[in-house]
Write the structure tokens for this entry.
Amino acid sequence: MILCVQGPRAVLPVPTTEVVPFTMRTDTHLGFSSPTAPCCLHSPPKLWDPTEDLRAIARTFHYLDISGWYWGAITATEAQSVLQEAQEGTFLIRDSSHPLYMLTLSVKTGRGPTNVRIEYSHGRFRLDSSSLAKPRLLAFPDVASLVQHYVGSSQGEVRCKEDQPMPKGSALLLKLARPLHRSKSCPSLQHLTRLTINRLTRYPDQLPLPRPLQRYLQDYPFHL
């Protein structure tokens, strides 16, 4: 799957056949009729705002930096090395080595460590997958939401395309279980407490907590 950057779409003029002609409106308070304004049946397509890309990407890297399981610019070989002895389902996020992708999910599977690219398009992230499975995959506003969706639930298995040459039509049964934190980023007690609170309630904003603590919880609304 190749991620293409699309430029602004041209706004085509509305054909004359799509314009409603003038009609007569009765103005009862004046006692005569007057023409109404023309109305278009089809409005022009809405153009994508590039600033939305900036917000979505900045939000994703903000969450990843806090998470502790974003390993940055490590190679596929380095990711394989740290995942080799881990339990099946252990994963991390790293920078993609492919020029058309930003991020890659590296995970220990039953076949060993493997890599799955993460696609980005118009403010949404999703796993790179085979063409047949792609319509069934959800897209998310950030990578942390994507990962959390697949962790610890019956939906934690998905057929994806590995970030390496594979026979046509083959797919990988992917199961995510637990993140692998960087050795130099041991979670603080505050962060562990935040994760526990997020696991125990879906509405942390309703807890009777001081405003600074509420902001701290909202800064990372995930439980992994």
The chain has a mean pLDDT of 77. The first strand starts at residue 19 and ends at 20. The chain is about 25% helix and 20% strand. The two ends are 28 Å apart (CA to CA).
